[in-house]
Amino acid sequence: MKSSLIVVGKALRYNLPFLNYIHSTITKHLNLPDQTVYIDKNDKDLFFVLEESISHADEIVIVTSNDSFNLVNKVIATLGEETLELKGGMLIPSKAVRYETDCYLLAREGKYINVIKTTENKKLPPIFIDNTNESSLFSIINIDEDSLKILVEPLAQNYEIRITPTTIIDGWISVEAVSNKYGNLESFFKAVKSLLPQKVIQHPDVIEHICTCLETHGKTLSVAESCTGGLIASMLTEHSGVSAVFKGGIVSYANEIKASWLGVNEETLERHGAVSELCVREMLEGVLNASLADYAIATSGIAGPTGGSIEKPVGTVFVGARDKEGNVLIERLLLEGDRHYIQRQSAYHAFKLLLHVGETLFLK
Amino acid sequence: MKSSLIVVGKALRYNLPFLNYIHSTITKHLNLPDQTVYIDKNDKDLFFVLEESISHADEIVIVTSNDSFNLVNKVIATLGEETLELKGGMLIPSKAVRYETDCYLLAREGKYINVIKTTENKKLPPIFIDNTNESSLFSIINIDEDSLKILVEPLAQNYEIRITPTTIIDGWISVEAVSNKYGNLESFFKAVKSLLPQKVIQHPDVIEHICTCLETHGKTLSVAESCTGGLIASMLTEHSGVSAVFKGGIVSYANEIKASWLGVNEETLERHGAVSELCVREMLEGVLNASLADYAIATSGIAGPTGGSIEKPVGTVFVGARDKEGNVLIERLLLEGDRHYIQRQSAYHAFKLLLHVGETLFLK
ipTM of this model? Predict the structure, then answer.
């Protein structure tokens, strides 16, 4: 089974927020498409690209801009030797098996082709296609990829599961598990969990898992961010219903804000600098005091590309997590990548520490 | 000129933070690739997909996982009827015109093929390819797409520029301008600016433009976010050097945090609710007082999918911007899309208001 996403209309290409919305909606139906093609409606290869993409995939979603919908419909009809018919106020290929305003579905030689017309800042029309693969994403922490292969691969074969592990950060591996015909994902998960106690998070989204566990136990979280600059708060608040567990966050970018909002000692900042274990320790304490939350995470580091020194090169980041009883973990990292990737890796490392500080909640 | 990005290795596909890093690095060299293909190294179509992608594009970047680099090199050599040679410790196609550790460049029949080997959490090797199109992104605010076409399109033709406008939010259009052979981007920009005074931002990234203008004038900014939950702070801190102008942000998700951190009146919250003009007004005042910044932006709304009511359905968002002299703009929005797209549109609307409140700085 191969899937393809084709985006027609050059204007869509430059509208990154809208494109993100399209992507995140499509991937709920197609998992991650094997191929993504962007093409302008005036591109002379349009016919050819559509023909080729349709011939090599089984599930095709074609997203068009407002002004390229009609043209795409003509091309799709021609490719299938169909005529255009007026259905639901749209001129669409005659053999459409399903349609609603601004979208239709074709079933052609065992393939599904779903065409949708989009308008910026508007809700997407419904998507009819649905990938039927039984697959699942989960995470394993505190394990390296080699050990995972040695330990989990044989189990996967036993249960007729194919797994694809990928290292998100050191000690945090995300695994896609796809069930073969006679495979059994549930039994596989049980076996992995009993093989690796307190290491498996059976949820495609670890952050959502954290929020759910906090809510179940009536606990709350707050964050104090320096180098991640709001990214951790933003990753949390991407999830609906987080307001029950996320009290708030402080982005303390300037040093005087660290002092005035979080109560970090000026002496700490002077003697150790903002990028220090002690500063993160005080940020954790400060945000817990200010928010009265049960758990806190904090970051301070040099995301670059400027601001590095010999002692603390770019990529030096301190991350920490703490509960209100005073259990605290702080780590010094040396990360690679561009500014944004360093920020994102820092965020994942901070969440990993939170998993450990609250392991009775999160790693049962 | 067509460009293509091919990602080989299934594990890369599921590592979204790393994939984002790859994308943002590649797009500095290729603008936005016309085609993006993901393929597993064990996929029986690998040879075919590489052949096809190379034949239809002029600039091809192939990103491989650690364990698929050698296989890809073999395929690429076979396709070009080259042998493999040991260069720089790698077995790569014999006609590579340039190589460094983990990467090489081929020039084949007027096409450029750049292969790079990647490892999670590590810096990417250098990318040799560089798109030579003279193109530029800029933004126009307070104009609709139809007026833009009527006013700017003839100018573009005069200067031999092709433009592609896309509406980011209502009244904020991002425009890609590509110069033809004899085109003149600089003169075109001057003409557009004098045609549309105080509406043109000649910078590919409006947020970076805001930061630069603030820094030039020695001004600072702080933010108070409810429904955007850290996204605005995160969009600001994606830019290096923002520490000179961004003092800090407060993500006041819980109502008690709005009261205790920002000084929002409990009466306001009780009588008008957190999603109200008055609440945003007090959030702006609160964060300015707490940070002593010159400008502030604030948001409060219902990003959904739950939490809506008849009076305030999902997508109802109040955004505001203010300076310390008390000039303030607040807007009530009704946005469509999923949770994340509503958050992102809110953020852009808030930045748009900031552009207006600080127009002497930002819209000269």
Answer: 0.93
